[in-house]
Specification:
Rossmann fold, single chain, eight-stranded mixed β-sheet, 387 residues, 16 helices, alpha/beta, five-stranded parallel β-sheet, Oxidized Rhodanese, domain 1
Amino acid sequence: MSLSGRLSNQEVARYSRHLIMPEVGMEGQLKLKASSVLCIGAGGLGSPVAMYLAAAGVGRIGIVDFDIVDYSNLQRQVIHGTPDVGRLKLDSASDRLNAINPEIHVETHNEALSSSNALRLLGGYDVIVDGTDNFPTRYLVNDACVLLGKPNVYGSIFRFEGQASVFATKDGPCYRCLYPEPPPPGLVPSCAEGGVLGILPGVVGTIQATEAVKLIIGVGEPLINRFMIYDALRMKFRELKLRKDPECPVCGDTPSVTELIDYELFCGMTVEPVVTTSSSASDEEISVEQLKLELDGDDDLFLLDVREPEEFQICRIPGSTLIPLSELPSRLVELEGRSEMVVHCKSGVRSAKAVKLLREAGFKKAKNLSGGILRWIDVVDPSLPKY
């Protein structure tokens, strides 16, 4: 694609509604054509971001993703369709963007963003849009943007709430100014565990795309030094004022973080090696294969489901009893007299917390079902629906 100082007749027709706006005009549209934006993720947020930036005429759009389209994505990741299930998200997204606007250039990066490749990947773009859904990558994107001097258009979604801001600019704070330390692992549930309204990423992602366009054109008041919170249930927007922290280890006056670090370790998500002892993880976990054998031969085995009632309605392992993890501490009396006990959730994260709680409360034979009900469906009962 030519990044010359003019638009073709076809481009003039395509962008005519921009061209007649004094805030954009020919100069602004040419800035968009000459610009480049990197979208981190082709999921819920990345979908509307990439599509609207493509339609707006951003000349070069990069996407970093390594995932495959799944049925559970289709409720919110609108860049993908049912025929795309099983395809690389990058391939699906690239096809969609080229269909929206063949005048732009789409670059795909089929790799997981890491400390070893972040500076290389982000360094080739003018604006970075963070559409990630986990803390290690958010801190990685933030630190890379600060080190490279690239604006970080941030967004996040959970259930009915969305957030957006612009970090890592010269005069504004970075993500670490707001969140110096990540929350303890597992404290904040993911969208896969807690759910998200399918429309929510469309709202937040469109705001991110708007901020990216404003930064490129140089108009309006970007969300710098401002943190927007959107409550979809109450249809309310709130705004918090932010300021740059002079003590910030990344963007402060005397930064201590001058290179990318191990962000899995920083967020406490590294896997500790298993030491085989009588109290090791092998004694605290059970496989779905072993559970099936024990259920077939042991009527006394108690199966505890610590998911939410809405999840229990979707699918359940026959014979299981539901006590949500949040209610477990106040309902331990209901478990008195139970000896053999297997605890499960969707994937094994919440049930691991439950087993720790139960063992500390004296239920020493409580075991966690490795892989949760998703693993049970894959191996034992594929007739159950996955979510």
